[in-house]
Design brief:
Radius of gyration: 22 Å
Distance between the termini: 54 Å
Shape: globular
Strand content: 15-25%
Oligomer: single chain
Helix content: 25-40%
Largest sheet: 4 strands, mixed
CATH architecture of the largest domain: 2-Layer Sandwich
CATH class of the largest domain: Alpha Beta
Length: 226
Amino acid sequence: MNELDKPQPDMKLEVVLMGTSDVDRMKTFFEKLGWRVDIDVAVGDFRGAQLTPHNSEASIIVGNSITSAKHCSSQLVLAVKDIDAARNDLIARGVDVSEVFHFAAGPFNTTVPNPRVAGRDPENRPYFTFVSFEDPDGNNWLVQEIKMRAPGREWKSTAQGGDVAALADLLRETAEHHDHFEKTHGEHQWSDWYAPYLNARQNGSNPDEAAAAADRHMEELLAPVR
């Protein structure tokens, strides 16, 4: 079998390496954002700290000897579901954040004059609304609002196991939201409501959106046949 024909192994963005001349200053900055400190190690002349944003599967490592250049200016993107809430949180943590903006020619496109336009994307599309800030080393961070990911933008897990604790939490959440529907509707199979709710949550919807999707599905399912 050709190597390219074999199932592709899972590959996730894990770490972004960021060179810095002042690890303590960078570490303190990201700690103020509420990021978890995974490790802070010093070996000889090397110093590096790994930090992870809340609920992120990817991390950064800031270090004084992890890139070929002493300073490594980078542009990085963080994804959030609510740009206004994220901006308010950053401001509360002492960060100098831009006003909300969108790109005149589409996300990340700076080929036109005055590429950044004040305000949200006029069509309120996912991926099109931003704020930005800089860290102490001048790296530019873009915060991008993604309320719902475009089709095909999430990897389907092929793992047989999974995070049992996370699944248990999701099932408890589903049961809580199903309780209201169960009390206000007639007899039905609980699994018929659970399935669309779980599917919506796993595809990026918030609990209210998932509950609405499950309600719509049940209304169609329970509608009298004419």
